[in-house]
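Dear Dr. K.,

Following up on our conversation at the group meeting, I've run the structure prediction for Lipoprotein from Bacillus altitudinis. I'm pasting the input sequence below exactly as I used it, so you can double-check it against your construct before we proceed with anything downstream. Let me know if the numbering doesn't match what you have in your notebook.
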Amino acid sequence: MKKGRLLFLLIFCLVFLGACGNNDTAGTDEKDTEEKQKTPKQGEYVDGPLTKVGQKNKGEDNEIYELKNIKVVDETTDLDPLSINIKDVKILSISNISDDLLESYQQGLKLKLKNPVNYIQISFSAENKGKIDLLWPQISHVILNTKEQVNAKENQLLDSGEWELYSGAKKDITQGIPFESDPKDIKEITFVFDSSVGNGTTVTDEKKVKVKF
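The predicted structure tokens came back this morning:
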């Protein structure tokens, strides 16, 4: 009788431990699945800003935006009385563009666009710490390590807003500048920040800032 009880208890313990092990495995599998769902895979479509190389999202006209490269800069350049903080620089590509959309992009640009459209997106803030209002055209040109030079004032994919920067004001600016070079060849970009004018005279001279990927 005692042997029968011992055998029963042994079998019960083995079954109980096996069930616990399965529950732990199931819990681990569920956690791994949740983590995979949270972490975007390279090349998949995401909602919101593109922050990792290979991420894509779709526009309203089914055009596809893909992040080819990104450099988080977070550095400040002083052009007394201007203070410019470059947040990040992205190299993006737009594909699956309809003829009508490509024509819309082309309006007002001197550079001849083709599908896909490659462009540089730079996000920065500018603060006028001086006592006079400034007229500042922001970035005038970009120069790539491929030796390509683009006039940013004549080629804007994104509206960078008004050029007026009043005394004591600070604003965030994003400029989108198309280029013709192969995105994978871009290793360095020189941004030429234009001179500013106040009260009819030049207040700050132009300034070149290099960003390396």
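Two things stood out to me. Residues 1-17, 33-40 have pLDDT under 50 and may be disordered. Helices lie at 2-38, 99-106.

Best regards,
J.T.
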